[in-house]
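Changelog entry: the Arylesterase record was regenerated in this release. Current contents:
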Amino acid sequence: MKNILIFGDSLTAGYGLPASQAYPALLQQKLTDEDYPDYHVINAGLSGDTTASGVHRLDKWLPQQVAVFILALGANDGLRGIPTRETTINLQEMLDKAKRTWPDAKIILSGMEIPAIVPGRYAAEFRALFRVLAIKNNIAFVPFLLEGVAGMRHLNLPDGVHPNAEGQKLLAKHTWAVLKELLQKAPPQL
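Regenerated structure tokens:
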């Protein structure tokens, strides 16, 4: 079995929803539907997690055998206004740990954005840091995990922040578009 570890926050955990409606479970279903029986998705989402806490929390997952590592942290950093330099350093540290521990694993970085209505340069710097890290590390990239979901009332829970079941489907779709390019199908059985 080849593990796909999705390491994220409440967006990955599926805050406010049954685990079966969170996008990692939807990706597992997609893998089954598309005939990738060798892959198993692990939902390592933790609500409220920041990149700083993620650096330490990742250690718990390092003993796992991982074929694909999806790093989907950063939204809470943006919401809290954590300096982009700090977020960048933390994400890079997690990418370095993943590369050292799982040298053959494929890596995907899920980008985050905060609304451009936030004054000053912070929103632009925050958006750019994910793309810069993806290029620097030569890894696959989901430009904006919440594309088409953020700010859309009908795709979010009443809190306006966390995707509802329909919103989670879009998170799965964005991730699948990148993930499917990295997967290998098992050879047909003769």
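The chain is about 40% helix and 15% strand.
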